[in-house]
Write a structure and sequence with these properties.
By secondary structure, the chain is mainly beta. It has one domain (about 10-25, about 35-125, about 160-210, about 215-245). It is about 10% helix and about 60% strand. The protein has helices at about 10-25, 60-65; strands at about 35-50, 70, 80-90, 95-115, 120-140, 150-170, 175-200, 205-215, 220, 230-235, 235-245. The chain has an 8-stranded antiparallel β-barrel with strand order 1-3-4-5-6-7-8-11. A two-stranded antiparallel ribbon has the order 9-10. A hairpin with a 3-residue loop joins β3 (about 80-90) and β4 (about 95-115). It is elongated, with a radius of gyration of 21 Å.
Length: about 250
């Protein structure tokens, strides 16, 4: 049975808007503005975009709505994320940063309505990995010196992804069961928006930061020619993170 190497999909309009806003916020800066560097490292939870709002042709939605659907939930792909970032402040209100993260989640599934001749489940493993390389600009409206420092930001992310489906599958022509693994990988580019707050721990050197960011991107799977029921994989979703910040 044919089931579903994907190439990145670029949302050029949104990315252009993000880039223009970033350049507007960053410069030019006054010559007297103090440049401060900082590093942050943390962990969080990635929440994939829900079933009802995923991109048209998404392969997870296709798996769940096929004539012989699989049994899992999109929310099962919720999982842990680790990340780090290097930032440069241009005065008290504007900061630019570059960071990298890593998320991977494996989800077990079975056919909802079909079983093997011996009555056992026809089982698969769905696995999604995303490693975003992100450039962002943050705006701190009340500056970076207070006891509470809220901010908003925009950016662009290159999402290095890999998605696979492996295990047993059913040929729809004769309902025979076979074993295989289908994989797609590549890089997708899309905009990022964020908001958060920083709380100083020890003067202006250490701080705690909590942030919610949302990435927008999808990629091609190759569709049936590559063994997937859907031609797209939606990589969009939000990440709630908790970080330790160190200023230099």
């Amino acid at each position: 049975m044919l089931r579903r190497m994907g190439t990145g999909a670029v949302r050029s309009g949104l990315i252009s808007a993000s880039a223009v806003l970033a350049l507007t916020l960053v410069g030019p800066s006054p010559a007297s503005a103090q440049i401060v560097q900082s590093a942050q490292i943390g962990f969080g939870v990635f929440f994939p975009r829900g079933f009802d709002t995923r991109v048209n042709g998404d392969t997870l939605v296709a798996d769940l709505t096929d004539a012989n659907p699989l049994f899992f939930q999109v929310s099962d792909f919720r999982g842990a994320d680790i990340h780090g970032e290097w930032n440069v402040s241009f005065g008290p209100h504007v900061e630019a940063g570059v960071g990298i993260g890593y998320y991977q989640r494996s989800v077990p599934s079975v056919y909802r309505d079909l079983v093997n001749p011996d009555g056992s489940e026809i089982a698969q493993e769905l696995r999604l990995r995303i490693a975003p390389l992100t450039g962002v600009v943050r705006f701190l409206p009340f500056g970076n010196q207070g006891q509470i420092q809220p901010y908003v930001g925009v950016g662009v992310a290159a999402l290095f992804y890999r998605y696979s489906e492996g295990g047993q599958f059913v040929d729809p022509t004769d309902l025979s069961v076979f074993t295989n693994r289908y994989t797609t990988s590549g890089t997708a580019v899309g905009p990022v928006v964020m908001g958060g707050v920083r709380l100083p721990i020890k003067g202006d050197i250490y701080g705690f930061q909590t942030e919610y960011r949302y990435q927008f991107a999808d990629a091609d799977t190759g569709g049936l020619a590559n063994g997937f029921l859907g031609p797209k994989i939606d990589l969009s979703g939000g990440t709630l993170s908790f970080n330790l910040l160190i200023r230099f």
